[in-house]
Structures are given as structure tokens and as C-alpha cells.
Amino acid sequence: MIAISPDRPAKLVESRKAKSIGYALYSDSDLNAARAFGIAFQLDATTRKKYEGYGFDLEDAAGRGHGWLPVPSVFLVDGGGTIRWVYSNPDYKVRPENEMLLEAARGVARSD
Question: Which domain holds residue 101?
Fold first, then answer.
């Protein structure tokens, strides 16, 4: 399993040191991958100010001032590199249930 983050590499190093994670973590601070997958969006000035009010500094996290964020998404890819299942929800608080992910992963594994 891999994860792609909009955070700059130095931030990801901090995350890896702070938490024990069992997967590869890659930086996409320019959001090139997120844009290619069609899951990137640019925050308007009002929303950026709101984020700053919550203590979330996008520029510090990404190391860039572009104001882009990815929609939280999960892509399951088969052994041949074909995307077989996607979950994407613009509400970052809504994530797929574990059972949903397991069933989707089993389905992809069966099709391989």
C-alpha cells in the first residue's frame, strides 16, 4: 500500500518519525498526481482564510503557495496497473468504512 500526500517531503519525514506507519508515503506537494487523477481543487480566498483561522497553514504544509488540495480518495489498482475501484468524497470527514474497503479489495484480488 502507498499513500500520496499534498505535504512537502520534510513534513512527511516528521509524520513518519511521529507515527509508526506500515506503508510507503509519497509527497505530491505540487498536486500533479492529484490533478492527473481529477481529485484536486483550488481553495478560494475566503476558504483559505478560514483554514488559517483553524491553524492550518497550507503554504507551510505543501511548501507551495498554490492553494490546491486533494479530495480524499482511495484507488485500488490490480496487478496489471488498472484502477479497479475508486472512493472519493469531497467531505474530508467522511471516509469509507473498513468493511467497504475490504470487500472492494477482495473483489479486485478475485479479478486479478
Answer: 2-111
